[in-house]
Design goal:
The complex is a heterodimer of chains A (about 400) and B (about 280).
Chain A: E1 2-6, H1 7-21, E2 26-32, E3 35-41, E4 47-54, E5 60-62, H2 72-75, E6 80-83, H3 84-90, E7 98-106, E8 111-118, E9 122-132, E10 147-152, H4 153-160, E11 169-175, E12 178-183, E13 198-202, E14 208-211, E15 215-220, H5 221-234, E16 237-242, E17 250-256, E18 260-266, E19 268-269, H6 271-279, H7 340-348, H8 357-365, H9 391-395
Antiparallel strand pairs in A: 1-5, 1-7, 2-3, 2-6, 3-4, 4-18, 6-9, 7-8, 8-9, 10-14, 10-16, 11-12, 11-15, 12-13, 15-19, 16-17, 17-18
Helix pairs in contact in A: 1-3, 1-5, 4-5
Chain B: E1 4-6, E2 18-22, H1 26-34, E3 40-46, E4 49-56, E5 60-67, E6 73-76, E7 83-88, H2 89-96, E8 110-115, E9 122-128, E10 131-137, E11 155-162, H3 163-171, E12 179-184, E13 191-197, E14 200-206, E15 213-218, E16 222-227, H4 228-231, H5 235-239, E17 243-249, E18 254-261, E19 267-274
Classes of the chains: A alpha+beta (about 400), B mainly beta (about 280).
Amino acid sequence: MKCHIPSANVKVLGKAIQTLSRIGDELYIQPHADGIYFRTVDAQRSAFATFDFHRSFFLHYSSSSNQASSSQSQAQPEICKVAMKSCLSVFRTQNINVEMCKLFFSNNGRMLVFQLVCRHSICKTHHVPVIQTETLQANYNKSTARNKLITQSKLLIDALQNFRNNQDEITISVAASKMILRNFTETGEFMRNTVRTEFALESTEFDSLQIGVDATITFNLKELRALLSFAEACSLPVSGHFDNTPGRPIIFCVNNQPAFDAEIVLATMSSNDTTAFSQSQSMTSQRSVNDSVLRKRPSTSIDPSQSTQKRPTPAAPTTPQQPVLSQPPITPQIHTEIEEIQQLHWEDDEEEVGTPPELRAQKFYFPRCFKDSTDSMNTTQADAVVLAYDSDGESGK
Amino acid sequence: MPVQVSTTVDAEESQYQLVFRMDNVKNIYHLLKAINFHPRATCFATDSGLKVSVESAKCCQANAFIQTEIFQEYTLQPTDESVSFSLDLNVLLECLDIFGDANSNSSPTALMLRYQGYGHPIQLLLEEEDVVTDCSIRTLEVEELANFDFTSDDVINKIILKSEPLKEIFNAIEPSTDIVELNLYSNEPIVKLRTVGYMGEVEIDISKDSDMIELFQCESDSTSKYKYCHFKQALKALAISQKVSIRTDDGGLLCMQFMIKNDYGHICFIEFHCLPVVDDD
């Protein structure tokens, strides 16, 4: 792969990489016949972002390797995974003097090279080591989403300014030509000192707001803010596609055909129980957590009767006696094709989207408490087998 | 403007070894700020002006030269020993900035400095719009500074560059870099700056036909490495300069001279020496 990027587009590429760096720590670069994908996914596999730069974005683009020495490289596209921080340092400064940027592989595909040709006959070359050759893709379909919004980024940026920066999740509800943004709070904290913010937008404020079906979804705000700052920098509108099917992700897009388009896919929390939360006035920390989970298993549909899980016994918030999440796999709209070793690793610490930070922290530090085996109600005969007797009991003998 | 370089004995000022006056403290403030990478500074007063030196870890040293032309009045008593003193540079800078706008253009602060001699403190008088502040700064024993002997005979390579493009190059260096490698070649590219970090390798090449190069002399290709934490002390001086001259000798000692022009058109120099990192193999 070898491409030349003109001066004006170097800034766009820099902004794109900055946006991707706010989402994930590793950058997947996948050249294809018509352009290059720059992709990333976050650590919890709950947000996926892709920037597709087409041929017209580049001054010159050739996807296949021209190395005559390796005949195999003709067939295989040169894909790679690199550390996000390394690429970010290439575009760290304003780079107003950059006349052109060249991007290519060197050292037999082991190094990715960003070469910035600048004014005053200065040439800056960044050699970024390739971590692995690996692809990243997600299966999703935004055309089937029944709700669609198109707006200038400024509208959403201004709306989100009303929410605090440390707000992780936001709930949007659409109904009757109106969109309401609310910050997401756990029921238990209803009585505590949390600020609850609600912001309503009429459909006339958007460039377009098509509501096919009333919906309420909750998703992570951080990635949306990243995309909005990119859209603002490029002065492009943002479109959003979502539905009310539980577990269905929300997709935000920034299009600049024919040069490039960008999409982020965010996993959502199911709507049914979030509305139940806000109405609950219970003093006990009754939680019914039903989150849409990203799993790498075949999709199954949800049975609504199973959607509420075992209610926990009222417990002090500090003890990790939380509900055991043994619900059946919910429709995963995003699959990631990754190497097997990594897949095993991911299954150990899956995270549910939309779980509040405290719960996530508890689950991180006390993982065994959340597994089936530690729930006394689930103890089977096999678990009752004692493998080692109490040393105290034997000492008296 | 009237400049007095007086070495005669003046009845009023006979008790002072050094007296100088400056109409705008800005002229001296930003020079001293640029070399403020170590709290201790040593000042040498000679007939040609004031030299302020700062040294860090015995391997990098900066000297600011302020000629007598910059001062409105400069009086130095003729003595057998050289007039020199050490003081805390941070304290001096805070005193010079006591009216809060040493760096701005609004209502200039006037400065008068008096030094009686060994053992006596520095007396500063600062005035802005009829408000006068009196400061007294304790002086310290002058410690011997490393003598980076850089005679013209040893110079191998010399290059004079415009500061503005160089600022952007140095600002682009990752702060976490450990070592900066400076290569000067007789062939293209004539200047190659290389940094290696955990994020990868960065090379910056400057070509012979670059318009930022005013002079280039290369006797033999040279490669020398410097620790970035020392090298970056020069960047503050680079930021306020218009031109810089970079010289290396056969030992790899780096000498950068920054030409700084102030608002009145006067030229001052800041010199920066840095010892190279020597590989053990």
